[in-house]
């Protein structure tokens, strides 16, 4: 299918915070209460529209367990957006955010847009991390923030789409070098020839390249 | 240079594989001629010794990333390969002649197989019809139609836009055993090998390579894994001692699970077990969860070099299910069995035996789970080298679209294909793995290559990165039976035969 841009995402965060469920809700619009553990990385994709333009999202969902870190780290490079997820009912997953953020910043390109997500907002009764705390953390570290529920789908679309909007804005502002695929952005194959300002990406119609 | 090798390699191999496909499953004697006890034949992966760090306790200095070996001279590599395999090809001639001689029996095999399959589908239908009203949401899953390639597969089966589907459980068996004569004869052979005062291990491996009958599988697996001694006299005392030893571990270590040092490990295990979907019904039972918690925790703290790594949990399941099958009525699917009805003593036996056999298995693939998972990285690389040689168009297709082998085969290695095929197929697969030297490490690699190539055409039909990845993540294996595994094992064996003598050839990076 044709698209104007392709953005690559990575989803990170502690084990069991709902990364795979968020992705499944976003790509398939369904919730799986028992979701098998993610081993290494798994892949998902969906098309969205921003500013009247078709944008393809390719998303790497990573395993949260520390043991897989050496594998999952290689997926930071080449990602334009990251969803950093914690579980609002488990404070330890919030406490680990700093480590995750350091890891992400160290291994990604400096312009990567990071969306902080407090997931499981449907479990209000078991809430262990206040919304204000999430907001404060995001403010302090320059992230976008949302609370979501993969179960009820609340804010799930928005989380993925707002991240894309931010990336799109950065492209408009000329912050991203869109000719460098390592930034996790690709121009759609049919769009480059019609626009002299957008040189054809290397490899023509072929997908991917690099690690993801 | 041997011209046969130069041009005939793939062609000859295809013939052999095709023939092998036709009867491997039914001719254990042929299959096992192939069983090779010489360890150097499986040396593909064994030469590299890496430092061992706990997966969760990395070394202070980061490991160097992707140590690039200097690129070898291709012509030399091929020359080595030729030298190393030329005798294999001579052997192959005999094999071919032998195969030609048994063509006659193929007809019998085919007709028997057809009869068996027909019987199976009839009894399955009857079985499902009988059970269907009892289960909520298709708990008793019928064989999915062969056309539903997008079902919630034995893997994760997600992220295809096929609408909501409840997670399915796959029956371990499709049907009540219909035992044709051939199967009965096989069972008899097993019984006599197992009943002797001293089980001939080579004989047992030969028999087991092409599949172990359900009735003798628990005992055969315990012997093959090295848990149960070959000597009949020593079996009972050994079992007694090992079971006591395991429960000694629990007494000694299990209380440490809440200590600061170990609580992360235990929490991870606690989180993971209810999320195991291979036998969803079973893993929702508290008694099963607790058994797995103990097995995994004890193993983890006794193996600090790796600790508990996700995926290891899956590896306990086949042992657990097979050992459980000894104690439940043949007609009850283990997945639907309520374990609280079993005596505590029985559950303890199953638990201890599962622990020891899993532990033996893991001994052979420990570097899959140590820091940075070098065993997996090595195997993924070897898989790439292998496929590059046996299926050039497929390899090119993957490369052209920027698909990396690590992206799809990491899970194949980490979970020994358990996420990709139904549990009953894994059990069949392990009959063979346990009959091979280093089956879970070396032979698994060849199996993965055969597995990938099996989908070669379908993968090449996908026109972009996304399509390929999605397909590889949701391979249509939900309906697979033992026969599908048998075919792949025959192909894997051929690959081993071709390549295991040429480890250097494969390890060359290019």
Structural overview:
Chain A: It is a lipid-anchor. Chain A: Residues 183-212 are annotated as: Disordered. Chain A: One of its GO terms (molecular function) is GTP binding. Chain A: This is Ras-related protein Rab-2A. The complex is a heterodimer of chains A (212) and B (510). Chain A has 212 residues and is an alpha/beta fold. Helix content of chain A is 27%, strand content 24%. Chain A has six helices and seven strands. In chain A, strands 1, 2, 3, 4, 5, 6 and 7 form a seven-stranded mixed sheet that branches. In chain A, strand 5 (113-119), helix 5 (131-141) and strand 6 form a beta-alpha-beta unit. The longest helix of chain A is centred in the last third of the chain and has 17 residues, at 156-172. Chain A starts with a strand and ends in a 25-residue tail after the last strand. The relative contact order of chain A is 0.19. With 510 residues, chain B is mainly α. Chain B is 60% helix and 0% strand. The model of chain B is unreliable at 1-53, 61-78, 80-107 and 130-164 (pLDDT under 50). At the A-B interface, helix 1 and strand 2 of A face helix 9, helix 16 and helix 20 of B.
Keywords:
heterodimer, A: 212 residues, alpha/beta, seven-stranded mixed sheet, 7 strands, disordered C terminus, B: 510 residues, mainly alpha, Helicase, Ruva Protein, domain 3, Cyclin A, domain 1, 3 domains, 22 helices, 60% helix, 14-3-3 protein binding (chain B), Rab-GAP_TBC_sf (chain B), Rab-GAP TBC domain-containing protein (chain B), phosphoprotein (chain B), GTPase activation (chain B)
């Amino acid at each position: 299918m044709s698209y104007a841009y392709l953005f690559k995402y990575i989803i990170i965060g502690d084990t069991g915070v709902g990364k795979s469920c968020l992705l499944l809700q976003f790509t398939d619009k369904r919730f799986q209460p028992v979701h098998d553990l993610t081993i290494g990385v798994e892949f998902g994709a969906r098309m969205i529209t921003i500013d009247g333009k078709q944008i393809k999202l390719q998303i790497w969902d990573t395993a949260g367990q520390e043991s897989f870190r050496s594998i999952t780290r290689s997926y930071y490079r080449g990602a334009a957006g990251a969803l950093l997820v914690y579980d609002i009912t488990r404070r330890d997953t919030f406490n680990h955010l700093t480590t995750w953020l350091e890891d992400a910043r160290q291994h990604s390109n400096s312009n990567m847009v990071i969306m902080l997500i407090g997931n499981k907002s449907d479990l209000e009764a078991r809430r262990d991390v206040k919304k204000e705390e999430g907001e404060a953390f995001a403010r302090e570290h320059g992230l976008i923030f949302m609370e979501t529920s993969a179960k009820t789908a609340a804010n799930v679309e928005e989380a993925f789409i707002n991240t894309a909007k931010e990336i799109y804005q950065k492209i408009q502002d000329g912050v991203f070098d869109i000719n460098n695929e390592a930034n996790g952005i690709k121009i759609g194959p049919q769009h480059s020839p019609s626009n002299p300002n957008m040189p054809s990406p290397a490899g023509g119609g072929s997908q991917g390249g690099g690690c993801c | 240079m041997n011209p046969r090798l130069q041009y005939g390699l793939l062609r000859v191999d295809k013939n052999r594989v095709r023939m092998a496909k036709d009867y491997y499953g039914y001719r254990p004697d042929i299959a096992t001629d192939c069983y090779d006890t010489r360890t150097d034949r499986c040396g593909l992966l064994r030469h590299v010794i890496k430092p061992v760090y706990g997966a969760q306790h990395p070394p202070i200095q980061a490991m160097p990333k992707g140590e690039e070996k200097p690129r070898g001279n291709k012509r030399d590599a091929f020359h080595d390969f030729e030298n190393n395999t030329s005798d294999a090809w001579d052997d192959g001639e005999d094999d071919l002649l032998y195969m030609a001689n048994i063509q006659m029996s193929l007809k019998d095999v085919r007709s028997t197989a057809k009869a068996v399959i027909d019987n199976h589908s009839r009894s399955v239908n009857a079985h499902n019809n009988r059970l269907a009203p009892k289960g909520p949401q298709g708990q008793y899953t019928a064989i999915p139609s062969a056309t539903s390639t997008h079902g919630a597969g034995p893997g994760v089966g997600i992220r295809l836009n096929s609408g909501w589907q409840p997670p399915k459980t796959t029956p371990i068996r499709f049907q009540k055993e219909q035992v044709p004569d051939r199967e009965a004869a096989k069972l008899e052979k097993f019984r006599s090998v197992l009943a002797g005062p001293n089980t001939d291990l080579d004989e047992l491996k030969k028999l087991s390579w092409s599949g172990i009958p359900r009735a003798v599988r628990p005992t055969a697996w315990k012997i093959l894994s090295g848990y149960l001694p070959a000597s009949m006299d020593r079996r009972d005392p050994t079992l007694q001692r090992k079971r006591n030893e395991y429960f000694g571990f629990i007494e000694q270590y299990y209380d440490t699970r809440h200590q600061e040092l170990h609580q992360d490990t235990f929490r991870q295990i606690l989180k993971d077990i209810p999320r195991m979907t291979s036998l969803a019904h079973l893993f929702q039972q508290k008694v099963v969860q607790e058994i797995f918690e103990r097995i995994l925790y004890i193993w983890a703290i006794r193996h600090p070099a790796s600790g508990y790594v996700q995926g290891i949990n899956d590896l306990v399941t086949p042992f657990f299910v097979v050992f459980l099958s000894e104690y439940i009525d043949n007609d009850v699917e283990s997945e639907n069995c309520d374990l609280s009805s079993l005596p505590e003593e029985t559950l303890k036996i199953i638990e201890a035996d599962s622990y020891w056999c899993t532990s033996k298995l893991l001994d052979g693939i420990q570097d899959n789970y140590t820091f940075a998972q070098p065993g997996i990285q090595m195997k993924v690389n070897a898989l790439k080298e292998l496929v590059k040689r046996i299926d050039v168009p497929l390899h090119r297709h993957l490369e052209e679209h920027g698909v990396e082998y690590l992206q799809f085969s990491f899970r194949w290695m980490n979970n020994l294909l358990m996420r990709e095929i139904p549990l009953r197929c894994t059990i069949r697969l392990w009959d063979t793995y346990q009959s091979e030297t280093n089956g879970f490490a070396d032979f698994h690699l060849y199996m993965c290559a055969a597995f990938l190539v099996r989908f070669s055409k379908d993968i090449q039909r996908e026109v972009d990165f996304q399509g390929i990845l999605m397909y590889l993540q949701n391979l249509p294996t939900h309906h697979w039976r033992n026969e599908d595994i048998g075919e792949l094992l025959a192909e894997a064996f051929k690959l081993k035969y071709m390549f295991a003598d040429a480890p250097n050839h494969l390890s060359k990076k290019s």
